[in-house]
Write a structure and sequence with these properties.
By secondary structure, the protein is an alpha/beta fold. Helices cover 55% and strands 7% of the residues. It is built from 24 helices and ten strands. Helix 6 packs antiparallel against helix 7.
């Protein structure tokens, strides 16, 4: 929802905004980033995969027969060759020093290349987000990944010795086992790209983990070289699958509820998985006697740990399956009807009822209740969710973005808006952090997108006029963000008809897009702008209306007929606009207004509905209203609001006339042209 006028309450919290620098799209900088990432894997996974035969160091020397390593990681090919060339000549110690020097050089090169990538935020990131471990889905998945890597790296360390000491394979043949395993894993890393779009990331991770567990127990019974080679191939495919799918699964909405924290969540998961990598081989080493060919205890341990990984992951998978089953069962209930209307003359359809976040999300409604309200709205067919950079200092936007991610809603099913003007609390200097200058429109929208974790919004509004900035500059700036793909339509909020007409004149003159929609206050008590001032705009430019405060901040619900309840919006909100409305109760005009509202109760009762639904239906009866933005602090309020569509047909001309007679405030339409 929206505030009637003026500047929203601000705090001293300072927020950083994103750079204007656009994201790359396959250009040179993007490819430099790819090369940088490749170098990082070259110098990390290469040596790690190559030293998979470190277990052979149990006699205080490295075996001269060394693994040819991996096809999967090119570094795993280069470093073993380099090792075999250097170790006989300079010894093990200096060989490792050469490796370290090369890693330093390539690491600096990789860092330099990666720094060329556009930085989306100057906001400092947390190295570790402890709060994440209060979330059961994230915690169980991380434990599952830890167990995966604890088990996964044990075969990589002991394959060569097992093949030689237990199966009697030659040094030359056993040295190829890791190459076979890693080469097969390349197939496994391709599979997720084919399977995840159809089955989802979690089922792919779970299935590949189960396959690894089965193979690890099968390893115990292998006594032939051919069977062991088959094991290496199958284990490489299965392990390669979960290695590739795990990062995608980490970004599942139930594990990472917002893309703004994706980096932290991924980094923490990799750190935890890395601890498993470090611990697995030493533990297995204490359970086995490689020199005597005794591996049974280590093999059983490895298989059991992988089973544990599957159990932790399946806990999350079945949880999601249960949720989906619950949704399917709920669909058997009678589905409420939702009406969709075109936004003015555009081709965009929005739900006739939309959900706003003013004074609620990030305010006196906690996050869980906000999620529940949005979920109820979505289930009822509401597709339009309204935000603004000034709502709760941007917290309203964060909650909306987190909710979209949490429930995994498809972005193309949603219409999400934000409004730009009041953003002074997001920078150290207020000068350019508010208003409708080109600078703040672009940077403010970037900051809003970052908070929501989105790449675009469907609608962006000029949140009140900025009479210190030329309208031409504002028109050009909003067209710029549309051309950049950061918004599809732009509009205004609480602008006068003359200001909207001026914006259209500049747009027509410059061949640009004019404001598609206006967001005014409109309800039974506030009618002049919508029913009088804007009349010619509907006909001449097709302005669509997404109106706020259809219940006049709750006044039209009838709950204030006998005073102000302690738990009502007027009773709990500290917003200055709410306080202004509250202060009007005591004067003569306020008493007359409450008397008129009370006289609407019999009208509502005659229609078999409440005063709130009557007021909402009255707003939607206006054909120029594309959507009425409602607020909700409880899901039940959403379910009540959608009943309006059964009342709309009952609002006959006679009923509308009766309401007008009670209100006595029907405005006279303007007759002058604007454009």
């Amino acid at each position: 929802m929206e505030s009637p006028s003026g500047d929203p309450q601000r705090s001293d919290v300072i927020h950083e905004v994103r750079h204007e620098k656009p994201a790359t799209d396959g250009g040179l900088v993007a490819w430099l980033g790819v090369v940088g990432a490749w170098l990082m894997f070259f110098i990390t996974w290469g040596p790690a995969g190559s030293f998979g035969v470190f277990e052979a160091y149990y006699k205080s020397r490295m075996l001269s027969s060394y693994s040819e390593s991996t096809i999967a990681w090119i570094g795993g090919i280069v470093f073993p060759i380099l090792f075999n060339a250097l170790e006989p000549k300079v010894g093990f110690g200096w060989t490792i020093r050469v490796f370290g020097f090369l890693q330093l050089v390539f690491g600096l090169a990789a860092l330099g290349l990666l720094l060329q990538m556009p930085q989306k935020s100057t906001k400092p990131r947390r190295l570790f987000e402890w709060r994440a471990f209060t979330e059961i889905p994230y915690t169980t998945f991380c434990v599952g990944c830890f167990c995966q890597y604890l088990s996964y790296w044990i075969p990589l360390f002991y394959l060569v010795t097992y093949g030689r000491s237990v199966l009697g394979m030659s040094d030359a043949m056993s040295s190829y086992l890791l190459s076979i395993l890693h080469g097969s894993s390349a197939v496994g890393r391709i599979l997720p790209n084919l399977l995840m779009p159809k089955f989802g990331a979690m089922p792919v991770v779970f299935t590949s983990t189960v396959m690894c567990a089965v193979l690890l127990f099968a390893w115990i019974a292998i006594r032939q070289s051919a069977g062991f080679i088959v094991f290496c191939v199958l284990f490489g495919i299965s392990s390669g699958t979960f290695v590739a799918a795990n990062p995608v699964a980490t970004l599942h909405p139930t594990i990472t509820p917002s893309l703004t924290i994706a980096g932290e969540r991924l980094g923490m998961n990799w750190l935890i998985s890395g601890l498993g990598t470090l611990l697995g081989a030493p533990i297995a080493g204490t359970l086995s006697r490689p020199d005597n060919g005794q591996f049974l205890h280590a093999q059983v341990f490895t298989g059991c740990i992988m089973v544990g990984a599957a159990l932790f992951i399946v806990n999350h998978t079945f949880h999601q399956f249960g949720n989906r089953l619950f949704v399917i069962l709920k669909k058997k209930e009678k589905k409420r009807k939702m009406e969709y209307r075109f936004l003015g003359r555009s081709g965009l359809q929005v739900s006739a009822i939309s959900l706003g976040s003013w004074l609620t999300y990030g305010g006196h409604v906690d996050k869980d209740k906000a999620f529940a309200c949005m979920k109820a709205a979505y289930d009822c067919g509401i597709n339009f969710f309204d935000c603004a950079e000034g709502y709760a200092d941007g917290e309203g936007e964060r909650i909306v973005g987190e909710c979209v991610c949490k429930f995994g809603w498809k972005r193309n099913d949603l219409v999400i808006s934000t409004k730009i003007n009041w953003g002074g609390s997001y920078g150290e200097l207020a000068a350019n952090n508010y208003g409708l200058s080109r600078k703040h429109i672009i940077e403010g929208l970037d900051a809003s997108l970052e908070r929501m974790g989105l790449s675009y919004v469907d609608l962006v509004y000029a949140h009140r006029p900025d009479r210190k900035t030329p309208i031409e500059e504002t028109v050009r700036a909003f067209n710029h963000v549309i051309n950049m793909g950061k918004a599809f339509y732009w509009g205004t909020s609480q602008w006068s008809a003359d200001e909207i007409a001026t914006a259209w004149r500049y747009a027509d003159k410059l061949g640009l897009i004019g404001p598609t929609m206006e967001q005014p206050e409109y309800n039974m008590l506030t009618r002049t702008k919508v029913e009088s001032e804007f009349v010619h705009l509907y006909r001449e430019v097709g302005t669509g209306l997404t109106v706020f405060s259809p219940l006049a901040m709750g006044l039209l619900t009838g709950k204030y007929n006998d005073g102000i309840p302690d738990d009502s919006r007027l009773g709990v909100s500290d917003d200055k606009f709410v306080k202004l409305t509250k202060s009007e109760f005591g004067n003569e005009e306020g008493k007359k207004m409450l008397d008129k509202i009370a006289r609407l109760k019999p009208v509502a009762e005659s229609l078999g509905t409440s005063q709130a639904i009557l007021a909402l239906a009255w707003v939607l009866k206006n054909k120029n209203v594309s959507s009425a933005i409602t607020g909700a602090s409880r899901p039940e309020q959403i379910l009540e609001s959608v009943k309006v569509f059964s009342i709309l047909p009952k609002l006959t001309d006679e009923i509308m006339e009766e309401i007008d007679n009670i209100l006595g405030n029907r405005p006279t339409p303007y007759t002058s042209r604007f454009i």
